[in-house]
Design goal:
alpha/beta, 2 domains, 8-stranded mixed β-sheet, 8 helices, binds aspartic acid
Length: about 325
C-alpha cells in the first residue's frame, strides 16, 4: 500500500459558500476525509499545514511547503505528496516547489474552482485525481505536477486561464503531459530537463511590472532604490518596451539590479528581434536577461530562487535564460 501525504494549504478546495452566497474559509477542511475518495488501496495522511486563501501566499509560505515535503521524504516513509492550494497563485507555488525540490517522490499540486457545497463542486474529484497521480509509478521523475480537471500538467508552464471555469489550468506551449481517466493515470509526454536548487531563505523586493501602451518611467522610478533585488518585466510582443521607459530601466541596471524580460503574450518567448528604439535588440544590449517561455509570475519565482541561492552575474543570467532547467 502506498503512503501519500496530503498537505492542505487552503483555497477554494477547502472553503464553502455561506447563506449569503459568499465563499468563506472553514475551520474544518471538508476534503480532509479519506472515506469520500474511494481509494481503499492508498493510505492518505492529511496534514493541515496552512489555511490561506492563495492571494495570501508568499515565497516564505512556499518555502514552508518545500521544507515540509523535504522532511516527509527524509523521515516519514512517504511515496508521494499532494498539495491542495488556492488556484489564484497555484501556478507560482507549484513552480516554486519544482525549482526547490529534488525529484525524489511525485509531488502533485491541485485545487478547486467551486467550493465544497456548491453545485458541481470539483474539489473532491481533483483531490482524488491528484492522489491517484501521486501514487502512480509513472509520475516519478517528472518534476512537480499540477493535476486539474483530469489534466496532468508540468508546473513549469501551467497557468490559470479562466477566472471561474473548472477547466482553467492550461499549458499554452506544450499542452498536457497526460490525463487521469477513471482508474487510469496515463502519461503521453515528459518535460525534459530539471534542475533543483537548495535554498534556506527567500530574497524579497523582487518585483513584476507589466508593460502597457503609453507606459512611462513612473513605476520604474518607484523601485529605483537600494532595497530592490530584482525585477521581471512583462514586455510587449516578442520583447519590446515603450521608449519613455528606457532611461529609468537603464538607471536600475546601473544599480546592478538584475532585470529579466518575458513577454506579456499568453505564449512564446521574449527575444532580441526588433531594432527600433525600445526593441528587443536595444534591451539585450542594455543588459536585460531574456527568459525563455516562462510567464511573468513564474519568471519572478525563478528569479527569487536564483537570487536566494546566491546566483549573480553570468550564473544568474544562464539560470534565468535556460527554460529547461
Ligand atoms: N481565490 C481562491 C484562492 O486562490 C480561488 C481558488 O482557490 O480557487 O484561494
Amino acid at each position: 500500500m502506498k503512503n501519500i501525504l496530503a498537505i492542505h494549504t487552503g483555497g477554494t478546495i477547502s472553503m464553502s459558500q455561506d447563506e449569503m452566497g459568499g465563499v468563506v474559509q472553514n475551520d474544518e477542511n471538508p476534503i480532509d476525509n479519506n472515506d469520500i475518495l474511494g481509494l481503499p488501496d492508498i493510505n492518505i495522511i492529511n496534514d493541515e499545514l496552512l489555511n490561506l486563501p492563495s492571494p495570501q501566499m508568499t515565497p516564505e509560505t512556499m518555502l514552508k511547503i518545500t521544507n515540509r515535503i523535504k522532511k516527509a521524504v527524509a523521515e516519514e516513509n512517504i511515496d508521494g505528496v499532494v498539495v491542495t492550494h488556492g488556484t489564484d497563485t497555484l501556478e507560482e507555488t507549484a513552480y516554486f516547489l519544482d525549482l526547490t525540490l529534488p525529484n525524489t517522490v511525485p509531488v502533485v499540486v491541485t485545487g478547486a474552482m467551486r467550493s465544497s457545497n456548491e453545485i458541481g463542486a470539483d474539489g473532491v474529484f481533483n483531490f482524488k485525481s491528484a492522489i491517484q497521480v501521486a501514487a502512480s509509478d509513472e509520475a516519478k521523475n517528472k518534476g512537480v505536477l499540477v493535476v486539474f480537471n483530469t489534466g496532468i500538467y508540468a508546473a513549469r508552464f501551467v497557468t490559470k486561464t479562466h477566472t471561474t471555469s473548472v477547466d482553467t489550468f492550461k499549458d499554452p506551449i506544450y499542452g498536457t503531459l497526460g490525463t487521469v481517466d477513471h482508474d487510469q493515470v496515463i502519461f503521453a509526454q515528459q518535460l525534459i530537463g530539471s534542475e533543483y536548487t537548495d535554498i534556506n531563505h527567500v530574497k524579497d523586493h523582487v518585483y513584476l511590472l507589466k508593460a502597457y501602451a503609453g507606459m512611462t518611467d513612473v513605476l520604474f522610478n518607484a523601485i529605483d532604490n537600494d532595497e530592490t533585488n530584482g525585477v521581471v518585466i512583462e514586455a510587449m510582443g516578442a520583447g519590446n518596451m515603450p521608449a519613455p521607459t528606457l532611461k529609468a530601466i537603464e538607471r536600475l541596471i546601473k544599480r546592478n539590479i538584475p532585470i529579466v524580460l518575458v513577454s506579456r503574450c499568453f505564449s512564446g518567448s521574449a527575444q532580441a528581434i526588433y531594432a527600433y528604439e525600445g526593441g528587443g535588440i536595444e534591451l539585450k544590449d542594455m543588459g536585460l536577461i531574456f527568459c525563455t517561455q516562462l510567464n511573468g509570475q513564474k519568471a519572478r519565482m525563478k528569479l527569487i530562487v536564483g537570487l536566494s541561492s546566491g546566483k549573480a552575474g553570468k550564473d544568474l543570467e544562464e539560470y534565468m535564460a535556460n527554460a529547461l532547467s
